[in-house]
Amino acid sequence: MLENYLKITFRNIFKNKVYSLINISGLAIGITCCLLTILYIQDERSYDKHHPEAYSIYRVATVLKMGGDPSRMATSPGPLAFTLKQEYPEIEQVTRLVGSPDQQKQVVVYNNNTYFETDGYLADSTFFSIFAYTFLQGKANSALQEPNTVVLSETMAQQMFGSENPLHKIITINEQDYKVTGVFAQPETKSHINARYFTSIYSSGLGEYINATRDFVGGNFIYTYLKLRPDASSKALEAKFPAFLEKYAGEKMKAAGVSKSHFLQSVPDLHLYSSLEHESGANGGIVYIYILSSIAAFVLLIACINFMNLSTARSGKRAKEVGMRKILGAYRSTLIKQFLGESLILSCFAIVIACGLTLLCLPVFNQLTSKELSIASDLHFSTIAAIIGITLFTGLLAGSYPAFYLSGFQPIKVLKGLMVNHFAANFLRKGLVVFQFVVSVCLIVGTITMLSQLEFIQNKNLGFSKEQRIIIPLRTKQAREVYGRFRNEISSDAGVVSVAATSSYPGKFYAYDNNFIPEGKREDEATNCKINVVEPGLVETMGYQVIAGRSFSKARYAADKYKSVMINEAAARQMGWQPSEAIGKHLKSGWDGKDWNMEVTGVIKDFNYESLYEPIRPMAFMLEEPGWFGYAVVNAKTENWQNLLASVEQSWKKHNQSLPFEYAFLQDQLNQQYEADNRFFTTITYLTAIAIFISCLGLYGLATFTAEQRTKEIGVRKVLGASVGNITLLLSKDFLKLVILGILIASPLAWVGVNTWLQDFEYRVDVNITLFMMAGLAAILVALFTISFQSIKAALANPIKSLRNE
User: Fold this and answer.
1) Looking at residues 617-637, what average pLDDT do you find?
2) Residue 139: which residues within 8 A CB-CB, separation 6 or more?
3) Which residue, 27, 124, 251, 545, could crosslink 605 as a Cys pair with Cβ 3.0–4.6 Å?
4) What pTM value is reported for the model?
5) Which residues contact 565 (CB under 8 A, 6 or more apart)?
């Protein structure tokens, strides 16, 4: 019996090659999308799962309100960790981690060789008792106990020392000496802490400040982690935080007019569920997971719909087979099993092809998503189970309705040529076509919206000049000390308009902030401002617009330093002033361990110094010594960039013999903020194209079948004088009606979806009717192109051939 069913299945496949090809290829493409998405989701969900008792590890995050909107930060103050452990016995262990807030790269020197290193952290000696790292050399529990010690990753150690034993060697990081006390293997598993090396938090410099401070309100730049005891409840501990803050920071918060709270985040959930300020790295997003999963599922569903539609449309071809089997004693359940079995066999063919397509597509998919996925390394039990599950699900879903529909034929009627349930099948078929185009139109609207938003981001006036600005990092004390001579030398180049130094620039994290008390207001009415430490000329070099008062100038440097401040419009608004009213007003602030009373000498028009996801927050500009500067900004105007950069590099090497020259264009730095969005948009575009392609495959199959069914009608109409255009319109209009209905249903759904996505952007495009008209027109043109091929072919056929047997 089984052998007989297999023979019939293969005969049907080869007898109906076009329809079989449409079904198998559609299912294979849909399954490929699902397999790639499963690999992506597995990778995204694998972060920080490898640590012992991972779900007992939490990060303490902060909500801080200092006038204006509250800030939700991934960081917290220095003394918090060990004070919490002292107060609450349910905390088993704590540790702290500190990134480099103002420089992405650190200068590392060993044996007169200079390296630029990224992802360096200060860490407590308890760090490796919470987080799992495999030590190749040294001991994890004691590696960071002493000041000025460092633990290196295996790749960094090999790069610097080669085959030489790195233990107890002295290396210099940012002009400070450290002894190597350990080497850890580069983790194969993913973590939100992507570290190349760790230095002891007890080291001199920043480490001394962290361990000396007892401020529980300010200094929120430290990642605090807790490991709870097995019987402890994170919610119960979190509920104790308000009383803890009142005990240790209540008076200071009240005096400063600050409100603050802490909450816990499970470490394995950070990558997908956390998007706070000052994250330790670029996290993923659960919303993107939901969107990709939904689209991949819809692509597979569209392929299954094609299978159902073509199977039910061609049911007449197998009606007599069903009738004969029933007359010969076949039960309906037996026929259902046969048709589901045929569907499962097609699904097995599709899954084999899909596995091959997945291997072929992985390099492109990895490039789109910036990942290193591979079936070999990511083929877990769950992946195998998913492949089996998708095969069964696809086969059963695609074959379910055809199986129940075909097995329900009444043998007497079908053998007489009378079809049953024709209206129900036809209605369902049309409904499924409408559903396909509802999904397709929603995806087209989403793709066009994302493209419009990304173009808006790239073309929006950010309030400064981003073109032809070169950023040169000043990473060492020496580079900052010789900066003045370097600036003067390159300023004489004909391609250089101006040069100025700054502590940070738009698109880069602003490490400094402070409270400013406007004159006539209380301390609890202070405005918290980001601080940009600059030299005279920076405002003009960056192209910021001064809308009231004056800018800093070299002639007034001595008079303005520590006595004058410039603010942006957002700061003036929050202080209750119009820009013109702010000029001449005084602000009180504590800065660099002293109290200052500064006069507002200028107001700068608001500019987007953070990404367009964020609103423009208050900012203050202050003059300082070169030691505060992190970057030099070059405003250039040249057609020959190669010569200009070569000239600047030559001047750099003249003054910084031991420090390699590096630079970046401001526009490129700004675009990096939206790399994840660009990758996501490209991925969605491909998936949308695939969904439309599979929908068109099904539409093509239905159009082909319709043309076959109406061959004699077309012949009669042609004999009676119908033109090719008349017949093409006749065959196309029914399908176009379904497409238009799909557009009408999809439009409100797409409107809700794109507006929900755009809510994440503080600055965004408007969604208007033009967008839906474009998407609808695109869907109609694609459908018309698909249908018209078969319609025109049928209309051009010789009517004599179709009518010769009549």
Assistant:
1) 90
2) 182
3) 545
4) 0.82
5) 516, 587, 598, 599, 600, 601, 620, 621, 622
